[in-house]
Design goal:
The protein has about 150 residues and is mostly helical. It has seven helices and no strands.
Length: about 150
């Protein structure tokens, strides 16, 4: 019995004296390596036309996961995925045009992309489309001109 207590005391002392932050550093490095590998694989697959990889790459650029954050690059990859009929990418295209992320703010193009995503059954796109329709209707009633194809 004394040996068991002594053994438990020694083990608990070793556990308490270990630095838990070393393990956290190792895990952070491992996660960073995995994200970098995911970025490399997504880049290769996206270049070959894989729609899911194109969307993943766009999200990585939008969030800054494993790569420097770039709204313009995110928009580019969202556009490629949306053109390949990815519903979520169509929604993000609408958000990009509605909020001016990576491109100039263009409500009419946002409406176009939200409409495409809503037709595919995307619920958030339906809500954004309804909100955008209300705001565009108010502008038309006030007599403001709504531009369609203006670039920065």
């Amino acid at each position: 019995m004394k040996r068991v207590i002594l053994l438990l005391t020694i083990i608990s002392t070793m556990i308490l004296s270990a630095n838990p932050f070393n393990y956290m550093r190792i895990d952070a490095r491992r996660v960073q390596q995995q994200v970098s590998q995911k970025f490399i694989y997504a880049q290769r697959a996206a270049a070959q036309g894989n729609v899911l990889a194109q969307f993943d790459l766009a999200m990585m650029y939008a969030r800054g996961d494993g790569v420097r954050r770039s709204e313009r690059e995110a928009f580019k990859w969202f556009h490629k995925a949306a053109r390949n009929n990815h519903t979520e990418a169509k929604f993000y295209m609408g958000l990009s045009f509605a909020q001016g992320r990576g491109v100039k703010r263009q409500p009419q193009l946002a409406r176009y992309w939200f409409k495409l995503a809503a037709k595919a059954g995307h619920r958030q796109a339906m809500a954004h489309l309804a909100s955008l329709e209300r705001s565009l209707r108010v502008k038309v009633l006030r007599g403001q001109r709504i531009s369609f194809n203006t670039y920065r």
